[in-house]
Amino acid sequence: MQLANYLFQIYKVDMESKDIMTWKDPGYYVSEPTFVARPEAETEDDGVLLVTLLNATSQCNVSLVILDARDLREVARLRFETEGSVSQAMHGLFSLTHNHHQDG
User: Fold this and answer.
1) How many domains does the chain have?
2) At 3, is the secondary structure helix, strand, or coil?
């Protein structure tokens, strides 16, 4: 498997059976998924994955995709455009602006 494939796909690996499932949306870079367990989950994959997608040709076109963690089926998607470019890797980015919300 080529390293470039990791930028475009989500992988789910069953460590016991060694089965691999993938999810991708052609033309989008995928972020590191965030797992959110279902309240009172009974299995380790009982929940959803939150995945940020960045359009490969437009750095202002971003999506948040919610996948069922059991089978990687798409549950929902939110699309939006930003005023400026968004980095391909959104993990660990910091802003130089100081627009902090203050109560009162």
Assistant:
1) 1
2) helix
* Domain coverage including residue 13: 3-37+46-81
Kindly give the pairing relationship between strand 47-55 and strand 34-37: antiparallel
Exposure string (b/e) for 6-28, b if CB count within 10 Å is 16 or more?
ebbebebeeeeeeeeeebebeeb
Per the domain annotation, does 75 fall within a domain? yes
Question: pTM above 0.85?
Answer: no
**Integer Cα distance of 66 and 51 in angstroms:** 6
Predicted confidence band at 85 (pLDDT cuts at 50, 70, 90)? confident
